Amino acid sequence: MIRVMIAEDMHMVRGALVALLNVEPDIEVVAEMSSGDEILPAAHKHRPDVALLDIDLPGKDGLTAAAEIRTALPEVRTLILTGLGRPGTLRRALSAHVSGFMLKDAPASELADAIRSVAAGRRVVDSQLALAAWDSTDCPLTTRESEVLRLAAHGADAAEIAAKLYLSVGTVRNYLTTIAGKLNARNRVDAIRIATEAGWL
Fold it and tell me: Is 189 helix (H, G, I), strand (E, B) or coil?
């Protein structure tokens, strides 16, 4: 029996995933959650074979949680199920060493097969997205610059970003200026738009 944990913040989607997977004779959903902050504690508690994670979750995002699972519980495989089908998003997922990456609009029959493949130690990646990621450009931002822009994208101002990352407000403003320059953006909002569309956030 393959034990699966699901993290998805949309209740109807999560309920549908649970119902879909529980009819499979060899798959059992052992835990479900709506927040990224719940993922690692639940993984420690339930020790699933596969963690099925959305990326865009309240609190911690799914890719951050996947990286934490890999560090703390390397035997747990992670499969990203997302509506964010951008090459940059896939590149971020592969950098987090996820075991699989599927789009939410994939046929339902493919999900159970993907879970079985990931549980068996194979990697599953949407082929068209993989080709697009191969051809896409790397994110020009450093890890810290990406952190700053991600917080800005969630509505944090310079002072809030500074407090969260233990930086001075001036340093944060310098980062935002550098980010805009690297992305050829007109301002912070334009930088967020460019990075989001590229799948870098």
Answer: helix
Q: What is the CA radius of gyration of the chain?
A: 18
Find the mean pLDDT for residues 1-8. Answer: 97
CA 159/CA 178 separation, integer angstroms: 17
Spatial separation of the C-alpha atoms in residues 67 and 70, rounded to whole Å? 5
186 within 8 A of 177, measured Cβ to Cβ: no
Name the residue among 106, 98, 113 with its Cα closest to residue 53. Answer: 98
* Average pLDDT of the residues of the chain: 89
Give the model's pLDDT for residue 103: 83
Beta strands 100-103; 124-125: pairing state: parallel
Separation CA 201–CA 196 (nearest Å) = 5
- 124-125 sheet: strands from edge to edge: 27-33, 2-7, 50-53, 77-82, 100-103, 124-125
CA triplet 99, 41, 62: central angle to 5 degrees? 40
CB atoms within 10 A of CB 58: 11
Q: Which residues fall within 8 angstroms of residue 109, CB to CB, at 6 or more apart?
A: none
Instruction: Convert 54-104 into a string of H (helix), E (strand) and C (coil).
Output: CCCCCCCCHHHHHHHHHHHCCCCEEEEEECCCCHHHHHHHHHCCCCEEEEC
